[in-house]
Amino acid sequence: MTLDKLSPGKTGQIVAVNGLTFLRKRLLDLGFTPGGYVRVRKAAPFGGPIQFCLRGCEIALRSSEARMVAVKEAWK
Questions:
Q1: Would you tell me which of 36, 54, 65, 75 could form a disulfide with 61, CB atoms 3.0–4.6 Å apart?
Q2: What is the per-residue pLDDT across 44-75, written as a single tens digit (0 to 9) for each?
């Protein structure tokens, strides 16, 4: 499952970060590292940005960027 498929309020554990080199590096620099937990805060309608809580920070990503992060649903 990818990060854009998680529903608001759900938590996921990051499994892998895919994508082109520059985008993958940007996501890793933001803290989307394998093994970490991320919670979906809000999702804009019609495929707009999605807001996440990651390591105590609020981060918003485009749906296309969130699609690059593979997660498994977790109960943290």
A1: 65
A2: 988 899 999 999 999 999 999 999 999 999 87
